[in-house]
Amino acid sequence: MHPSDPVTPPELWNHPAVRQALIDRDIVTVFRHYRRHTGASQTRLGALTGLAQSDISAIERGARRVTSADVLDRTATGLDVPPHLLSRTTVQARTLPGTTSHSVPTGPPSPTRVGLPAQSRHQEDAMRRRNLITGAVVLSAGMLAPTPARAANPIAPLEQVVFEPLPGRPVPPTDLAQALTQGRAAFAAARYSALGAALPHLVATAEATRDHQHVGHARDQAHADVARAYVLATELAVKQHSPVAWTTSDRALHAARASGDPHVIAAAARMAAITQRRAGQAAEAAAFLSRTALTLTNNHDKQPPAATLDAAVILLLTAGYSAAVAGQRTSALALLDEADETLRRIARTPRPGGDGLLFAHGATPAEAAMYRISSYTALGTPDDGIPYARRIKPSTLPTPERAARYLTDTGRMWARIGDAPRTYAALRAIERTAPEELQRPALRSLTTDLLHSQHNLAGIRAFANRHGAYL
Known about the structure:
Residues 31-86 form the HTH cro/C1-type domain. The chain is mainly α.
């Protein structure tokens, strides 16, 4: 349990009304009951169930019905619903194009597999672990092939093994560096299923390699490589709103500090702050990032090197957006202005990909403009982001992941303005550019909002079906 997790009273699930709600799959009552008795915010409830805060709000208002078996399963697991309260009756799930039918529980599904004997469940778990060990040995070219839009949850393999790691063996540092580079390339290409399948072994290999190094620079570098692996894991977990991000970000920061490398520490601190922001602590995340950026640049007697200024820009941009999420307009704009000023101090053309192993993006004018768009949307003045949106052509952005990020930011901007056709156009552009992005809970939510809007958007229902929106 993370310190910010709500405390669950022992009698929480004993109320007759909530027991009936579980049988009826009345998620509105379940959510309201849970928050009333634990004090959890909508943001924290979203972090526990893998939903965006806007999803929780819409569900509690009755503006959205929950019928997805995946959402019901994550609700039961995230809220620790006792298995004996869940219905064991199964119904045939509605199938989507390209999928096969399967049985799902009529009540919120239990995190265990109801109906399987204990021995069978253990055998199934062992088989899954063996498949992970043998199937995720390397990030090969075949693993990085395009995947269907309706892919399985890409973070699931890591969630299964994060507390019971796979066995790893040390490899030469150059081999590990190559694997980390391939992992970063998979993320940049928005091939999240391939990355998710490979991450458990990549992390295990990085840790085994570090444990094989005992002293000196080699040991420091091995710590840095472990941090890079966990930074990558956290980036994927954050995209999927997975609570495992708390664990992976903490491990990344611990390893980064052990390495002593300020740039690695900066990257790990950024992911820890993003995880903190997603848990409803945006103001604290902004302050942490600001302090980290200041420490990074103050460690130099003269002009910091360009790579250090790159990292500072990225931290300040992330801090600015975090302050915007917290509703701190003055602080948010001041941090974004400071990032712009630092960017101008870099006496060379910034590298589009930053370190290549540390950050998802570099310090560039386009990135600064993208953070302006998302920050103004978070502050409730999305119209202010339009001039920045017009400065950027998605085709000029360095990777599919960054192009999808821009399209996501502009899609949210147009949604907040109330322009459904342009929002839908942005989502369809993401489908062409990086289809696995549309599996993110936040974009599923945006798709669902369009589906239930009053606008006549051609093909929206088929689009929602393709990408698992909450129907």
